[in-house]
Recover the amino acids of this structure.
């Protein structure tokens, strides 16, 4: 029995799965280094980022082995695989910029800090239920920081999303995502029975008690305020979508989804009629070609990238992703589509689907209602954010300035995503 318990503590499934991101990093970096040189000529110093990344994988695995041996064994390999692809693409895209911005080095630093924050979360968050106790604190903190950014923040591409501290730019909207999920998970756990209670009839229209419509109204208001003041469609879509998913899971009532979609649709129509930036986004989405040298330049170049990639891609280092402005942030998926083709994009989508599935698996095994809603909220958050950015760069939906979780370049996004992953792993460790 002792030998069996010791073998379980090794977390063999996790260490075997971590071979995948390690190989992705090594092979990807070698291709980026060797393709331009057209010869097998490289030195160990060329792979220092890969060695750092593999070291982070080993340390993270050891921390989970000794601190949380019962935690889920698929989350770390999945987020590490996405991170490895993002690191390789950052190095690849950096090579096309003559190293003027050093985005690969910066991304390596952010990834290192992300894994450190992941480890700190799983070690320090001894009782995840404490998050529920401070749900209103998280709500006020997240909304306050985001509102401050909308008023006093730095304007980038027409949207006020950032605080610029010189050496570091922080996007409060990234932190707001986690704050809102924590608040909603706690609120829905407290009000679960009331949300599932029979509706009162006003004539023939079923209507829930008015006090419990308050969170619906608050979330609707937050979404519209973000849309108006930050001039960004992404957060509005993301926050309200996560809220509707969590509300439906808690209540089991499709009526909430229908009412929420109608309310959001009405607000979107009004915003389209009153605000120029909304009209511009929709016009570029419907037909970017007349604006192909101006406002529609990014999406047109993204479409060309996917077309050039074909099924198997041009190969890492053989594409031309540098034609797309800000390709390392919003449009990294287009660069992957060009150089790795349809096959590479399917891998990205599959990894995201597996990660979302794992969130719901953890939710089903959680022992507390708050843990269940929190894991579901994290899964909805990661899934919707991925869908919004993937849909935007492929012209499926209007383009928004959001990052692809664990892949896109960006300090705020990387840190908050690893923090979210740490919370998810910590929840899984308390499962029966």
């Amino acid at each position: 029995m002792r030998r069996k318990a010791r073998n379980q503590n090794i977390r063999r499934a996790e260490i075997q799965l971590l071979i995948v991101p390690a190989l992705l990093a090594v092979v990807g970096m070698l291709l980026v280094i060797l393709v331009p040189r057209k010869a097998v000529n490289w030195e160990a110093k060329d792979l220092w980022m890969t060695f750092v990344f593999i070291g982070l994988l080993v340390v993270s695995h050891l921390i989970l082995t000794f601190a949380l041996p019962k935690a889920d064994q698929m989350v770390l390999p999945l987020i590490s695989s996405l991170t490895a692809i993002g690191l390789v693409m950052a190095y690849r895209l950096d090579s096309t910029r003559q190293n003027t911005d050093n985005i690969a080095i910066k991304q390596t630093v952010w990834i290192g800090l992300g894994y450190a924050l992941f480890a700190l979360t799983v070690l320090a968050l001894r009782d995840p239920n404490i998050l529920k106790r401070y749900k209103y604190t998280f709500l006020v903190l997240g909304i306050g920081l985001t509102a401050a950014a909308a008023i006093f923040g730095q304007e980038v591409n027409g949207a006020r999303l950032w605080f610029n501290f010189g050496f570091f730019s922080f996007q409060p909207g990234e932190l707001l995502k986690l704050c809102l999920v924590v608040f909603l998970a706690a609120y829905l756990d407290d009000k679960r029975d009331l949300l599932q209670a029979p509706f009162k009839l006003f004539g023939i229209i079923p209507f829930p008690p008015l006090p419990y419509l308050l969170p619906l109204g608050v979330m609707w208001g937050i979404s519209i305020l973000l849309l108006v003041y930050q001039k960004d469609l992404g957060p509005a879509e993301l926050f309200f979508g996560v809220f509707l998913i969590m509300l439906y899971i808690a209540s089991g009532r499709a009526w909430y989804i229908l009412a929420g979609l109608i309310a959001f649709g009405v607000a979107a129509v009004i915003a389209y009629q009153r605000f120029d930036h909304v009209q511009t986004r929709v016009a570029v989405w419907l037909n970017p070609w007349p604006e192909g040298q101006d406002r529609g330049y990014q999406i047109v170049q993204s479409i060309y990238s996917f077309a050039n990639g074909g099924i198997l891609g041009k190969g890492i280092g053989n594409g031309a992703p540098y034609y797309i402005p800000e390709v390392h942030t919003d449009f990294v998926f287009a660069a992957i589509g060009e150089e790795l083709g349809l096959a590479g994009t399917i891998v990205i989508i599959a990894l995201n689907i597996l990660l979302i599935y794992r969130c719901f698996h953890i939710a089903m095994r959680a022992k507390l209602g708050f843990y269940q809603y929190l894991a579901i909220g994290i899964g909805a958050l990661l899934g919707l954010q991925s869908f919004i950015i993937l849909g935007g760069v492929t012209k499926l939906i209007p383009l928004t300035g959001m990052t692809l979780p664990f892949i896109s370049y960006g300090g705020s996004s990387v840190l908050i995503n690893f923090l979210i992953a740490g919370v998810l792993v910590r929840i899984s460790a308390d499962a029966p």
Remarks:
- The longest helix spans residues 332-365.
- Residues 1-7 have pLDDT under 50 and may be disordered.
- Residues 49 and 105 are 8 Å apart (CA to CA).
- The first strand starts at residue 154 and ends at 156.
